[in-house]
Amino acid sequence: CEDVVLKNVVTGKYGNNDKTAKSDNAVVTIDGQVCTEDTPDFKLNKMVQIKGSDEWHENVAVKANETVRYRIQFKNTGNTKLEKVVISDKLPAGMNYVAGSTVLYNAKNTDGKTMGDEIVNGGLNIGSVEAGSEATIYFYATVDNSFADDCEDSKLTNIVAGKYNNDDNTKKTDTADVTVEGMVCDPRQPRRQNDGLKGGAAEE
To answer: Using the 8-state DSSP alphabet, how is residue 92 labeled?
Structure first.
């Protein structure tokens, strides 16, 4: 990486007498490469949208049984290629992954490639990502029907993790939220008759 200096020296004399010797030199400098230290780094971004929408958000409001689409963006922001990049996604209780819905877009798959379900089962290895390049993963999940009778809203946080070289020390995470809207429950509305009561009177 550094310059190399080559010095050439010439000497002349007469009468085979070293006392008459004189010398001169010429210098050749070989330019070294511009070398920089490897600085691996990446950014991880997680967003969500309601199925059929064109807009991405960090938080969307849905109802029970609705389907959302998640987007994970991995960008190599360092100056060296990252090897063995693994993306894993942890869905919260109440969010059900849609099997077979994971699609990967990167430099080798510009039209998208359908992947297995490893994204939510231990991690999806997307291979290497060159410096400055980006990989994007999409998949769908559906809100569980168990929220249908809830009166209060429920916030479901989805966590994505990314790392390279199978090294947990390189791991970064990001989140996206889905808020499941609760029913409008009027506390003044009489509740159903308790099975243990008689006389047909409803409790207030």
So the answer is: P
